[in-house]
Design brief:
The structure is a single chain. The chain is mainly beta and 98 residues long. It has one domain. The protein has 1 helix and 6 strands. The strands form 3 sheets. Strands 1-4 form a two-stranded antiparallel ribbon. The chain has a two-stranded antiparallel ribbon with strand order 2-3. A two-stranded antiparallel sheet has the order 5-6. The protein is globular, with a radius of gyration of 15 Å. The protein starts with a strand and ends with a strand.
Length: 98
């Protein structure tokens, strides 16, 4: 299979959860000392209190050491550009909450 898949388990199946995924491929960027390509997967959800688990399938092998949470590295204006909409951002416990 050569597709990505995203799904979740909810706490209450009668409450719908909205989710938006954004994929950004960072290739040959000046800030990358190692010149490797990076796949940035952003997940924006609503009604998150109803989400028990999130699942993401990628059609290739990934070592857990190569997975990073970029939430604490985002600048306040960058999420609006990545998700292509106006978002308010607040910092809570070293993470940015949209």
């Amino acid at each position: 299979m050569q597709s990505f898949a995203f799904w979740y388990k909810s706490l209450d199946s009668t409450i719908k959860v909205e989710a938006k995924l954004n994929f950004n491929l960072w290739a040959s960027c000046e800030f990358q000392a190692d010149n490797e390509n990076y796949l940035d997967i952003g997940i924006l959800t609503k009604n998150t209190k109803n989400i028990k688990q999130l699942f993401l399938f990628v059609p290739f092998s990934v070592k857990s050491s190569n997975i990073n949470d970029l939430g604490c590295k985002l600048k306040e204006k960058l999420p609006s550009a990545l998700f292509n909409e106006n978002l308010s951002v607040k910092s809570v416990q070293n993470k940015l909450i949209l």
